[in-house]
Amino acid sequence: MIKCSLTKGSSFILAFFLLVLLTLVGCSSDSGGTTDSGASSGGDSTNGESASGGEWAGQTVKVQLIGDFSMEDSTDPITGVKTPGLKNLKDEFEKQYPGATVEFIIMPWEGYTEKTQAMLTSGEADVYQMPGIADFAAQGLLEPLQPYIDADSEFSLDSFIDNQVDGWKALGPDSSELDIFGLPFLGDARFITYDKKIFDDWGVEYLSEFPTMEEISEKAAKMTGTNPVTGEQNYGVWFRGDWSSAFTLVNAAEGLGGKWGTGFAWDEIEFQFNSQEMVKGLNWLLDMQKLAPEGIVSNQGNEKWLTKDNNIAIMLNQGPGDLVQQTYAQGLEDRIAIAQEFKDENGQGGLFAGSPITIAKDSENKELAWEWLKFATSDFAQQYVYETGAFPAVKSATEWESVKEYESLLGPVFKAMSTPYTPRYPWGSAQPRFILTSEIEAALTGKRNAQEALDKAQKESTEWLENR
Amino acid sequence: MAKNSLELETTSGPNSQLKSEVETIRQKKRKSQLTWYIFLIPSFLGILLFMVYPIFESLRLSFYQSNGTIENYIGLANFKTVLTSGPFWNSVWNTFFIGIFQIIITIPLGFIFASLINSTPKGQNFFKVIYFLPNVTSIVAASMIFAFVLHPEMGIVNYALDSIGLPTLKWLASPDTSKWAVILLAVWHWIGFVIIICLANLQAISPEMYEAARIDGASGIQQWLFITVPNMAGTFAFLLITGWIGALQRFNEVYVLGGPNGSPARSIQTMGAFIYERGFTGFEFGIASAATYIMFMIILVFTFLNLKISKMKL
What we know:
The complex is a heterodimer.
Chain A: H1 2-26, H2 36-40, H3 45-52, E1 60-66, E2 74-75, E3 82-83, H4 87-96, E4 101-107, H5 112-122, E5 127-129, H6 133-138, H7 146-151, H8 164-167, E6 182-187, E7 191-195, H9 196-202, H10 213-222, E8 225-226, E9 233-238, H11 245-255, E10 261-262, E11 270-271, H12 276-289, E12 312-318, H13 323-329, E13 336-340, E14 354-359, H14 366-376, H15 379-387, H16 401-404, H17 407-417, H18 431-444, H19 450-467
Parallel strand pairs in A: 1-4, 1-5, 9-12
Antiparallel strand pairs in A: 2-3, 5-14, 6-14, 7-12, 7-13, 8-9, 10-11
Helix pairs in contact in A: 11-12, 18-19
Chain B: H1 2-12, H2 15-61, E1 64-66, E2 71-73, H3 77-83, H4 86-119, H5 124-136, H6 139-149, H7 156-163, H8 175-204, H9 207-215, H10 220-231, H11 233-248, H12 252-258, H13 271-281, H14 285-310
Helix pairs in contact in B: 1-2, 2-14, 3-14, 4-8, 4-11, 4-13, 5-8, 6-12, 11-14, 13-14
Transmembrane segments (chain B): 34-56, 96-117, 129-150, 180-202, 223-247, 285-307
Organism (chain B): Aquibacillus salsiterrae
Pfam family, one (chain B): BPD_transp_1
C-alpha cells in the first residue's frame, strides 16, 4: 500500500514537473529562442561590455533579415568562396553605437511575406527587410522615413543608385502621394544575358547595349539549330514561361512604348493588360518560343546555362543572383555578357526588384532603428552585403576595388539597377500577376491566342480589382 | 491492491468508519485518475491551440475581407467569390481528375502486385521493401526528381519512349499532359502503401478456404476471384477512403511541380494550391478561408459517399 502510494505520488510529482518544464520552455524569454543567431552571439563578452555603458546603453534593435544570412562565417559549397557572417555587422554596429545591442531574426525567402506579416502584427522586430513594402505601408504598419531624413544632416539619399529610392516609395494608409517608407538595402535588377561563344560560333554580332526586340529575334533565329562548330543543338533564346513570364511580357510592352496600366493604390489602378503593345509583346514571346527549348513553360531547358556546355545564346529577364560567382567559378568570365532590357521613351523598363529596409510603426526604439538603417546603407554594411553574394544599392559600390575587378559583368548590372520601371509594379505579388501569368502560359501552350489570353487576363484582373 | 485493503477494512471496523474509509479510497482513486489527465494536458493544449483554434479562426476569417491585419466583415461574399470563381472550379476539376486516376490505377495495380508477391515462394520481404521504398521517400524530393525524369528533352521517360519508337510527350510543359505527369508521380508514390496493406490482408485469409476450393476443383483464377477478392473488400474500402481524402488534399507535389498557380495554365492547380495562392501569395485570407471550408464540405460529402458505397462502418 505504501509502495503503491509512493508510486502514485511520484508520478503526480513527475507530471507536475513536466508541466512546469513545458510552461517554462514555452514561455521563456524570446531573447534566447526566436532570435537564434542574434541572441546566441548576443551573450558574448563584447555585448556584455557594450551593454554596460555608452550613449545607447541598454537599447536593443531587433533586425529581421531574409535570405541566406548566417551569424558565423561560412563557405559556399559550389564556389568555395568564404562568406562573412552577420557577427561582423553586429560587432561593427555595436562598436559605432556604444551600449547598443543588435539582434538578428533571420528567415528564409520561402513564405517571407506571410511571416513578415505575422511578425509585424505581433511586434517582433524593429527593422524589417521588406520587398513587399507597398502592402505593409498601406496597412499603416511602417514608419514614414522622410522626417528622419530631414532631421539628419549627415544622411543623404544621393548615396543610393538612381531610381532605387523612388522604386521603393509607397502609399501610406491615408496619403495619396508616394512617400519613403524604406531605404534600399539589397539591390536587384533584370537584364538580358548572352553567351559570346555561341555568338562567335555562329558568326553573329554580339547584342548591342540596348537591344530592340527585332535585334533579339533576328540574332536568336540565326543561332537556333546545330552549332556549326560544336555540332550540338543550340537554341537562340530562353525565358521562363511560367513564374516570371508576366514581367518578361510587361517589359516587352514597355519596349514598344506601352505599360502594364496606371495607378498605384488599388482603388486607382487601371490595368492595360490587353493593350496593343501587350498583345504585340505576347506575340513576340510566342515567336521567341519557337527558338527556345521545349520546357520553358515548366522552367526547363536551361540546365546547361552557366556551364561550359551551354546551348542557349540569349537569356531574357535574368537577375544577378549567383550570376557573377557562378560565372567565375565555371571559368566563363570571357563568355557571359549582359545587355539591358527593353526601355521606354524615358529610358526606364523592366522589373524593379531588391529589398528595402524599414522601421516598424510600433517599434519602441525608433531612434536606434534609424541609426541601424543608416548603418545598413553605409559603405561598410553594403560591402558586407556584396561579400555575401547579394548586390549593394549604393552608388559608391562602383568604385570599390572588389567590384571593379568584375567590371565587365557588374557594370551593366549596376546600370540595369538604375533604369528599372518605377514606381514598382504594385500588382507584382498580388492576384493580377498570377492571372496574367496563367494566361501567358495558356498562350504559350496553344490554349488561346495572344489577344484572347490577354483579353481574359484583363477581364479577370479588372473583376478582381472591383471585388477586392 | 486497493480492493484488498477495502476488504480488510470492511471486516474490521464499524459502519461509519467504513464509510469514511470508502470515501478516502475513492478520493485516492480520483487522484490517481487525475494524474493521467495531467499527462494528457500538453497534447490536449497542442490540439486546442494548433487545431481547434485555427479551425474556428478560419471560419471567422471566411466572413471577413482580411489581409491579416485589416479586416472588414463582408458576410458570405467570400463564399460567393469562390463559388463563382473559374479558377476554383478548375482546381476542383484538377483535384478530382488526378485523384480519380490515381485511385483507379493504384488500387487494382497494387492489389495485383501484392497478389504476385504473395504467391512468390521466396524473396517476399525483398519485394516488399523495394515496392514500399517510394512511399517513404519525401514527396517534395520525389517531385523534384520527377521533374527531371519527365523533362521533355533530357528526361529518361521520353528517352525510353523514343527508343521504342513511340512519340515523346511534353509532360509538365503542356496542360494536356501535365496532369498525367502528376498522376504518374502519385501512383509511383502511393503504390507501395497499397501493396503493403493488400499483402497484410492477403496473408490473413485462411488457407483452409483455398484448400477447400481446390478440393472442389476451383482453378487459380476462380480462387482469386471468389475467395481473395471478396475477402479484400474491407481493405479496398479503407484504401478508397484514405486515398480519396489524400487526393482531395493534394498540395505538395503540385506546388513543387507547378508552383502555387499550378503551371502550366493552372492545369495542375489543386484545391489546396488554390487556397495557398489566394492566402499566402495574395494575402486574401478571407477568400482562402472560405475556399478551405468549401473544400472541407467537398471532402465531407465525398467521404460520406465513399463510406456508403464501400459499406464501411465508422
